[in-house]
UniProtKB/TrEMBL annotation:
Domain HTH arsR-type: 10-104
Claim: Transcription is one of the keywords in the record: yes
Keywords: DNA-binding, Transcription, Transcription regulation
Name this protein carries in UniProt: Transcriptional regulator
Pfam families: HTH_5
Gene Ontology MF terms: DNA binding; DNA-binding transcription factor activity
Originating organism: Limimaricola cinnabarinus
Amino acid sequence: MTQIVADRNIVLPTIEQRAKLFRGFADPSRLAILEALCEGPLVVHEIVRRTDLSQPNVSNHLRCLLDCGLVASDRDGRFMRYRIKSPRITSLLSDVDALLEVVAEGVKACGNYRSNQGETPPDRTK
């Protein structure tokens, strides 16, 4: 289901691939980890300290981020050091922050996507 442009050499991502990529960014824990890694490569215990997430939670989300190709790891002695795989990811997160400056009120008011932090969805039966 890949779209191919006229010259047949360039393959564009499909809507499904884009959606799958954004699902990788859609979890607050993964975003916290990515934000921490934007400052530079870190080992798991450093990510735990910077994000206030548990070590098992960080390890689980790092596995997901590795599988998705958003982070990479390098051996550093007995530890694995994790880093953002592409500078474009850091740029994307920065662009998202800039976009939120424009659309934050609409995002906050949106009843379709609620965080799991005690917010209840609107009553649509009325």
